[in-house]
Amino acid sequence: MGATELLQFALAGLKNGSIYALVALGFTLVYAATGVINFAQGEFYMLGGMLSVWAYAGLGLPLPLAGLVGVVSTAAIGVIFELLAIRQRKDGDPLALIIITVGGSMVLSSMARHLFGPNERPLPLFSGGGSVSVFGAVLEVQTIWIIGMTAIAVACLWYLYNRTGLGRAMRACAVNRDAARIVGIDTRLMVTVSFLLAAGLGALAGLAVTPLTQTAFDVGPTVGIKGFAAAILGGLGNPIAAVVGGLVLGMLESVSIAFISSTYKDAIALVVLLAVLFVRPQGLLGRSRREKV
Amino acid sequence: MGRARIDIRTIVPLALLAVLVFGVPLLSADRYLLKVLTFVGVNVIIVTGMALLFGYAGQVSLGHAAFYGIGAYTSAYVVTSLGWPWLAGVAAAIVLTSVGGLLLALPSLRLKGHYLAMATLGFGEIMRVVFVEARGLTGGPDGFSGIPFPSLVGISIDSAGGNYWLIWGVVTVVLAFSANLVRSRVGRAMRALHGSESGALACGIDLTGLKVRVFVISAALAGLAGALYAHVVGFISPSTFSLHVSVLLVAMAVLGGTRSLAGPVLAAILLTTIPFADAVIPGLSRSALETIQEWQEDVYGLTIIAVMIFVPGGLAGALRRISALGRRAG
Predict the structure, then answer these.
(1) A and B: number of Cβ contacts within 8 A
(2) Could you tell me if B102 lies within 8 Å of chain A, comparing CB atoms?
(3) Tens digits of residue pLDDT in B25-75
(4) pTM, 2 dp
(5) Does B107 fall in a domain?
(6) What is the ipTM of this complex?
(7) Rounded Cα–Cα distance for residues B108 and A24 (Å)
(8) Given A98, A104, A277, which is nearest B108 (Cβ)?
(9) Owning domain of residue B92
(10) Best to test chain A binding among B116, B120, B121 (most A CBs inside 10 Å)
C-alpha cells in the first residue's frame, strides 16, 4: 500500500473520528454532571440532521440559518428532556436515570418518524462538491467543514470549561457534587447545562455529516454506540479524553478497513469498547480510582 | 416467609390460572391467537431471566437479544444443518449462551457501577454484526429458513396447539425454578444485595459470584427461549435479535417491577400482546390496530420513563399494594 493510499485512509479516519469526538463529548459532559450514561445521545445526533433538513427543505431557510435552527432546537430538546424526565427522578439513582434515557431514546426517534416520515433525507453540501489534493490524497471540502467545525466546537468548549465561571462550576460538580453544592453551586442547573451542551454538540455532528450520508429517524443508536465507545476509550468524564478517544477510534476503524476487512468495520469499535472495559476501565487517559467504603 | 406462602389461598388461584392457560387450545381453534400466545410464552421465559437480573440482582442488560439470537441460531444450525435431534439443539443453545454469559459477566461484574449495561450493549451490537455477516452459519440478512418443528422421541410437534402447550409447559418449569431460586439461599442473598451492597458484603455474601451466577442464568434462559422460538416459527433473521428487542425486554422488566416474578411476567404478556391486539380483542378494526402499531414505540418509551418516575415499584409494586388492601379488607 502506497503512502498516498495510507494518507487517504488517515483522512477518512480523521473525518469519522471528529464525528465520534463530538458525540463522545456529549456522553462525557452528561456523565461528569450526573454519573449517568445518556443512551439518548445518539438521538441528538439524529435530531441535529433531521431538524436542519426540516428547516432547510420544509421552512425554506438558507442553509446556514437552517443548520443553526437544527442545532439550537436540538439543544432545546435536550434541556426539555432533562427538565421533564431526568430531573423528575428526585433521588438521582443512576440505574433509574439510565433506564429513563433508554426510554427517551425510543420516544425521540419515534417522534422523528411521526413528524418527518421513515425515509432518508438529504442536505446539500455546505460549499459545493469540490475537493482539494493533499499530497495526492483527495480531501473533500465537506470533510474540511466537519473537521473544522469539530475543532471550533472543541476550542469553544475548552474556553468555557477553563476560562469561565460556569465552566469552573461544571468542573467542580464533576469532581464532587456534594462539595460543589456546599460552596453554593446550583448542581441541578449544571445537569441541565450538560444536557444542553451534549444535545448541541451531538446535533452539530449530525448536521455536519448529513450532506455526505443523508439522515433518517433511525441513525441515532449506531452513532451513539460509536461515540460511547470513544468516550470509554478515552476515559469517561474528561472532555480532552473524549476527543482523543474519538480520533483514535476513527483511525482504528480506518486502519482496520485498510488492513483487515470492511465487513466487520462496525464490530471493530465494539471489540475495542469491550477490550477497554475489561482491561483498562478508566480509559486511555483516565487515572484509576480506588473505591473507598 | 417462604413457608407461609404455600397455603390454600395461593394454591387455588395458581391452579385455576394453570387450568386456564393450558385450556386455551381446547377452547379456541384460532391459529393466530395460539401463535401470538406462543410468542408471548417465549418472551415470558426471557423476561423471567431479566426479572432475576434486574429486579433481584439490580443489574441491567442491554444485550439480551444477542443471547436470544445465539440460542436460536445455535439450535437452528445444529438441528437443520448437522441433523442433531431437537433436544440436543436446545441443550447446545443453553450451553453456548451460558458460556457466553459467563465470559461477558466475569470481567464486567468485577467492576463497580454499570459496566454490565455498557458491556452487554457492545456485545449485543457485535453479535448483530455477526448474525448478518457470518452467512455460512446464519444465512446472513436473508435469515435462516426451513428449521424443523420441535420433536420429542421421534414425534414432531407441528400443530399450533402442540407448540402452545410445549412453550407454556417450559414456561411453567422456568417459573417454578425461578420462584424456588428467589426463595432459596441465593434469593435471600440477592435481597440482601438489593438492600445494601456493603451490608451484604459484610454478611459474607460473595457479591460478584452471585451477580455472575444470576447473569449466566438469565443468559441461558434467553438462549432456551431462542431455541424454542427458532423451531416453533421455522425461520429466524437478524432483525428478531436487534438492540431494539433488547430494549423492549428491559422495558418489560422495568414495567414489571423489582423483587417480583409475577410483575415482569404480567408486563411481558401485556407488552408482547400490544402489537397483536387483534388476536385477543375480537372485532378490533384494522385501522385501530394500525394506529396501535404506529404509536407502539412511543407508548413503550413513555411507559419506561413514567414507571421510573412515578411508580418505581412497577406492576409488582401495584400488585403488592392491592393484595395488602385485600388483606386489610378480609
Answers:
(1) 108
(2) no
(3) 887 778 889 999 999 999 999 999 999 999 888 888 999 999 999 999 999
(4) 0.89
(5) yes
(6) 0.88
(7) 21
(8) A277
(9) 32-243
(10) B121
